[in-house]
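Marked as duplicate of an earlier ticket. Keeping the data here for the record.
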Amino acid sequence: MAHARTEYTKVAAPRILGGIDVVSHRIDIFKYLMVCMIMFTIVSAFHVWSRFKLLDLNMEISEISRQLSEAGQEQKRLRLEAASLKAPARIEAIAKNDLGMALPTDQQVIHVK
């Protein structure tokens, strides 16, 4: 058999292996990366919002705790004032001095049986 000698003096341009598949594969990767970026942005926004809300609620709790403490102190002060106002000696002094009242005599007292 005779062997034919073939000369390869010309270089062929590289062939595109599945050109349409490569482009569609790149589009699929792009879509996947866009979805990942959108999800990352949503999760990040939710994280920032939840931290902001947490700080806001902590500030509100501390403000309400401060108001509760002040209300407790006010209640103690008012109880002390009420106790001093209903003291029998004070009431008797106001009745005698300001209202001109006096204790009843024995003739003014009627015993009921």
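See parent ticket for discussion. The mean pLDDT is 87.
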